[in-house]
Amino acid sequence: MTAQQRFLVTLLSCVGLAPLAACSADDDHDHASGPSSDQIAAWEDAYEQVELGKVDSSGCSGVVVPDSAGFQRRVALTFDDGPNPETTPQVLDTLKQYGVSATFFINGNRAGSDAAKSVLARILAEGHILANHSQQHLNLKNLSSAQVDSQVRLTHEVLVAAGESRFFFRFPFGSASCSAMNISKSYGYVVTGWHVDSGDWCYAAATGGVGYCHPSTFRYVPDSFRADMVGYTLSQIRSKNGGIVLFHDIHQNTASNLDAIVSTLVSEGFTFVNVNDAATFPKLNGAAVAPSKFVGDSCADHANCTFSDGATAASCHTHGGGGFCTLPCEGFCPDQPGKAPTFCTSLDGGQTGSCVSKSASLNGQCASIPGTSATSVERFVGSSGAAATTAIACVPN
Predict the structure, then answer these.
(1) Where are the beta strands (DSSP E) in the chain?
(2) Which residue, 98, 160, 329, 383, has most beta carbons within 10 Å?
(3) pLDDT at position 208, please?
(4) What is the tens place of the pLDDT at every residue in 114-171?
(5) Catalytic residues
């Protein structure tokens, strides 16, 4: 497709969105020129949320799955950005060969042709889930509420017309805001991130699909895997003992390598489930979770703070007005659904970093944390390389 043809396709597909400026290069996110700098930044932010803990956000992540462990070598395969009448059927052939069900997060603007509708029918007929990935793959975090609603609604109508009644939604790039999150949930969607990013979008970008992920496109892929998407994906699945895996069925490189990935996992004793498997992903599928302590919750001693962030154990920071749970940190702190977002700062004059709660409605702007007040504090960077910044956080008076 020529540059002029791509422009016309993008322009026509954006008709009806107000303002037209909402249509960006994101809509043409998979063409041969590769991802834009904004797209690369969005992918890196998503990786950091999954691998480093959710980074100083509002608490409305489109990436982080509430179930973070306990997968017991169970894997859920997901495919974004289709349907593609050429490559999606190849993916379906491989899944059928191994008896694997998966979830296909589609962009509605790709589903209008007869060939595309035939692919959607096959997806459902073979037991897979059709899911919503917005209409045009725009960064929904940057759109107005009306535009987000349009992006969700138009693809929702495609799913309903196709006969899907299991509603899962994934934000393009995993990039969400609380407002966009609420809009997607108003349609009955379960927002679904991922545990493993195959990086297939990088291996296919600007290389003619030859399978090399350049450091300038995705810096987090180890050099030993720069030309090995299969190895990179398997290494992550093994390290997490399963989980939800992100692919894109629009790429030939993905369709060609899927058999090697699935067959290796089968040989290593992994099994396959889908995202609606409540035994593997109970929190994602609405299971009630008993309240537990987290950063910012009141405590009297360390025994009250029994959670951890990986191998890093929490502790109780006591002060004249009481105490609250904290974690040691450098640069970043994890967040937890249902809890106020967190921030890494120093509570000892700059010697070490401690996670504290940001001032938020969930803690009454710090009123529910005795002995603290909403104060502007600086990030403790340490050796993390994180950018210097400030936040309004709940720190001892």
Answers:
(1) 74-80, 103-106, 129-132, 168-169, 190-191, 196-197, 242-248, 271-273, 308-309, 312-313, 315-319, 322-326, 328-329, 342-345, 353-357, 372-378, 390-396
(2) 329
(3) 56
(4) 999 999 999 999 999 999 999 999 999 999 999 999 999 999 999 999 999 999 999 9
(5) 80, 248
